[in-house]
Write a structure and sequence with these properties.
There is one protein chain. The protein is mainly alpha-helical. The protein has ten helices and four strands, in the order ββαααβααααβααα. A two-stranded antiparallel sheet has the order 1-2. The longest helix is centred in the N-terminal third of the chain and has 31 residues. The radius of gyration is 23 Å and the shape is elongated.
């Protein structure tokens, strides 16, 4: 599986499975199929309106269709966290190269460069760029600083960063773990998940050092290593936030 190494805002590198050309083409075809179905529906409605001598309604419907087609990707990616219907069905999404959710500005740049990637190059410019670029980016991705990765929905409890806490008598080891944010804990969980796939020990050492520095911990608690420390941080955070609620 091809991956992309993303340097997060916390300066920790995480490998994400990158979406291939085939998956992106399939997502595009799904979207086009939806628009084709909508177009057929509008044509059918137009035949009815014309037969009733009301062509104005037909022209309005065509206008609405054009507006939806033009702004579809921009609006969907902004409000659907980097996905449109096709991407959601193919389990892929747009992210920023810093590992976070892309900004509205980045989505806008990607949308503007669809003119170059698809319209002005006969739908092939972006595909060629994706096939040849190291990070599988079309021109709009390169300019916007984004790429498209695979998403795998969590199916097991161990895949979830924030899970129900059931140990009522548990005593947190890291007392100031609440200084972390939800995003920090999500990142720790991603690092742990990546470690169990790649066994990249440097990733654990780097993340552990940054978390310890953030929490003002000069030395890890006795008897636990860097990997266990990160697990404890996630567990303590879950416990404290669950009790706070």
């Amino acid at each position: 599986m091809e991956t992309i190494k993303v340097n997060t805002s916390q300066h920790v590198e995480i490998d994400y499975p990158i979406a291939g050309l085939g998956e992106r083409i399939a997502a595009r075809l799904i979207d086009l199929a939806l628009f084709f179905g909508l177009y057929i529906l509008i044509i059918f409605s137009g035949l009815l309106t014309v037969s009733f001598k009301s062509p104005t309604i037909f022209y309005v419907l065509i206008g609405i269709f054009v507006v939806i087609y033009v702004f579809y990707n921009l609006v969907c990616e902004i409000f659907m966290n980097g996905q449109c219907v096709g991407k959601k069905m193919m389990k892929i999404k747009v992210i920023s190269l810093d590992g976070g959710q892309a900004s509205i500005g980045q989505y806008f740049i990607r949308w503007v460069f669809r003119l170059v990637d698809f319209v002005l190059t006969g739908q092939v410019g972006g595909l060629i760029c994706i096939a040849l670029s190291e990070k599988k980016q079309r021109i709009g991705d390169i300019v916007a600083g984004t790429t498209v990765i695979k998403t795998v929905p969590p199916t097991k409890i161990e895949h979830i960063a924030f899970r129900p806490f059931t140990e009522a008598d548990y005593v947190p080891l890291i007392t100031n773990v609440a200084e972390l944010s939800d995003r920090d804990v999500e990142l720790i969980h991603e690092v742990l998940s990546t470690y169990y796939q790649t066994y990249n020990h440097d990733l654990i050492y780097t993340m552990s050092a940054k978390v310890a520095a953030h929490l003002g911990i000069s030395q890890l608690p006795e008897g636990i290593n860097e990997l266990e420390f990160l697990k404890v941080v996630v567990k303590d955070y879950n416990h404290i936030t669950a009790n706070a609620e």
